[in-house]
């Protein structure tokens, strides 16, 4: 099972797809479906990179944007395990209307870097947004970023600590970035 899953041409298939690949190789045993599911769930890389939904279904309350570049979601992606040129972090912003992504690699995640990013990559390119949604991290929930948003009359909203999916647009952008990034060998 491991050879088919991770082998030379392994695609890290999971569940039913893994079973079909094993069957094509000419192998079968009575509990093949259950064994494949357990095997995939135990793999740490599979757990990290898999596109599995674990959150229970709830009522959808979308955050709608009336026009392009009015509402942005911000989030940090990192710390990267193998940084290029010491860039261990990526600051990601996504527009809620167009789904346009702005990203900047950073060596250190600081409030000053957040402010510089907002000015150079958001305000100077697309104008002053109506709202910015971030998580409650200290890099976003600090006086410097709060003052910057206040000075430019930007409504700064924080996602709930218990429900980070409030900033789902930025989380989804980060997920796409992680899934398309090269995976470590192993």
TrEMBL record:
Single GO MF annotation: nucleic acid binding
Q: Which InterPro entries does this UniProt record tie to the protein?
A: Integrase_cat-core, Retrovirus_Pol_polyprotein, RNaseH-like_sf, RNaseH_sf
State the coiled-coil residue ranges.
Answer: none
Q: Which Pfam families does the record associate with it? A: rve
Q: Where is the Integrase catalytic domain?
A: 64-175
Listed GO biological process terms: DNA integration
Lineage: superkingdom? Eukaryota
Q: What Gene3D superfamilies does its record include?
A: 1.10.340.70, Ribonuclease H-like superfamily/Ribonuclease H (3.30.420.10)
Residue span of the signal peptide, if any? none
**Listed name of the protein:** Integrase catalytic domain-containing protein
Q: Species name for this entry?
A: Apostasia shenzhenica
């Amino acid at each position: 099972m491991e050879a088919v899953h991770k082998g030379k041409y392994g695609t890290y298939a999971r569940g039913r797809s893994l079973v079909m690949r094993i069957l094509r190789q000419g192998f079968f045993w009575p509990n093949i479906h259950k064994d494949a599911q357990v095997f995939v769930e135990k793999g740490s890389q599979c757990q990290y990179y898999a596109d599995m939904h674990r959150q229970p279904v709830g009522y959808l309350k979308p955050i709608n944007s009336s026009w392009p570049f009015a509402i942005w979601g911000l989030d940090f992606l990192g710390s990267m395990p193998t940084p290029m040129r010491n860039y261990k972090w990526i600051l990601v912003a996504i527009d809620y209307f167009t789904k346009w992504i702005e990203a900047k690699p950073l060596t250190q995640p600081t409030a000053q870097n957040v402010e510089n990013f907002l000015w150079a990559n958001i305000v100077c390119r697309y104008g002053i947004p109506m709202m910015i949604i971030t998580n409650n991290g200290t890099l976003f929930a600090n006086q410097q970023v709060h003052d910057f948003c206040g000075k430019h009359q930007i409504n700064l909203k924080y996602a709930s600590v218990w429900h980070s999916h409030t900033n789902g647009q930025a989380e989804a952008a980060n997920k796409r970035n992680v899934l398309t990034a090269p995976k470590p060998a192993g």
